[in-house]
Specification:
Strand order of the largest sheet: 3-2-1-19
Structural class: mainly beta
Shape: globular
CATH class: Mainly Beta
Strand content: 35-45%
Number of strands: 19
Radius of gyration: 20 Å
């Protein structure tokens, strides 16, 4: 092999790497290191739980296959939120019906491959007029040693309608559980004075941040609020930090930055913004990439062996 041939091969490898044409699974990550998983669903089918994975939080690749198909509620599967508890068990909740079922789907797994029997959690039956239970989101309250699950519901007539339809005027509600067997009665979680959906709770130093969608017309974009407790009260509601027609926020801490991902549903794509203080946000949508049809879910860190198991169980 001539020196010219070797140089040509080297430049070809450099070009391939710079163009992004590589298999993300081949990234040099040690088995005991953390990688990122994003629970999601395919907007074209809503057939069940899917995952995307990433080594840097910016570039996401599809995990082949559907990992769980819905069998409870109305049989719908949207907005999957996942969290790994202190004992290593993954807990999953999801929207199981557009309207009428007053609860959400729930299941758990140790490896994201083998799942428990699914449960339907009827959280809003104490409010018979409740229209819907949308986008349940899990947060683990380490200080309280409990799981907090927050979601959006409409109870017609409970709050002034403004420009919202009478049956589409949401506020955020929550329940808590320690074992996913018994759940506390649902209570109001947040009323910002306007319709709100898609809550996501995160801990930032000594404070808690609630990222949510302002679902009032004509806004339909994302804001944040702050509290000293993961149960609120939530205060200092920000101005919107995304364009209109964005929803489904979740966030990851990548280095010194928080990356807030969101579903830009009018554009049929996914976007992101980064921040260090939740006051100043920089749009980074051109810097991130997601699988086709990736939809509203939750991004978490997991050990590399979890991803390896998923890829081995669901080869492309």
């Amino acid at each position: 092999m001539t020196s010219r041939t070797i140089i040509s091969i080297v430049w070809m490898v450099v070009w391939l790497c710079s163009s992004g044409c590589y298999k993300a699974v081949d990234q040099p990550v040690a088995a005991n290191e953390e990688v990122y998983l994003f629970s999601t669903f395919d907007q074209t089918s809503e057939a069940g739980l899917r995952f995307a994975y990433s080594f840097d939080g910016y570039h996401w690749t599809n995990v082949p296959g559907v990992l769980l198909t819905p069998k409870v509620g109305g049989g719908l599967f949207r907005d999957p939120s996942i969290l790994r508890g202190p004992d290593g068990t993954f807990h999953l909740v999801w929207t199981s019906e557009w309207r009428g079922d007053q609860g959400f789907g729930c299941a758990e797994s140790k490896d994201l491959i083998h799942w428990s029997a699914q449960q339907f959690i009827p959280v809003m039956t104490n409010e018979p007029a409740t229209v819907n239970v949308w986008a349940p989101e899990i947060f683990y309250d380490a200080a309280g040693k409990q799981f907090i699950i927050a979601w959006a519901s409409t109870i017609p007539g409970r709050f002034p309608d403004s420009l919202e339809a009478h049956d589409n005027n949401h506020r955020l509600y929550f329940t808590t559980t320690r074992d996913f067997k018994s759940f506390e009665p649902a209570k109001l979680f947040f009323d910002p004075g306007f319709s709100a959906i898609d809550p996501f709770i995160l801990k930032d130093g000594g404070r808690y941040v609630l990222v949510f969608k302002d679902n009032s017309r004509p806004n339909l974009n994302l804001r944040v609020a702050f509290s000293a407790s993961p149960l609120g009260p939530w205060e200092k509601v920000s101005a919107p930090f995304t364009q209109n027609f964005t929803e489904g926020p979740c966030a990851l801490k990548i280095g010194d930055d928080w990356l807030v991902y969101f579903d830009a549903y009018r554009e049929q794509g996914y976007g992101a913004a980064k921040t260090r203080d939740f006051k100043s946000f920089t749009g980074i949508t051109p810097e991130v990439s997601f699988p086709l049809h990736h939809k509203h879910g939750t991004a978490i860190q997991v050990p590399r062996e979890i991803l390896d198991g998923l890829l081995a169980a669901n080869p492309s």
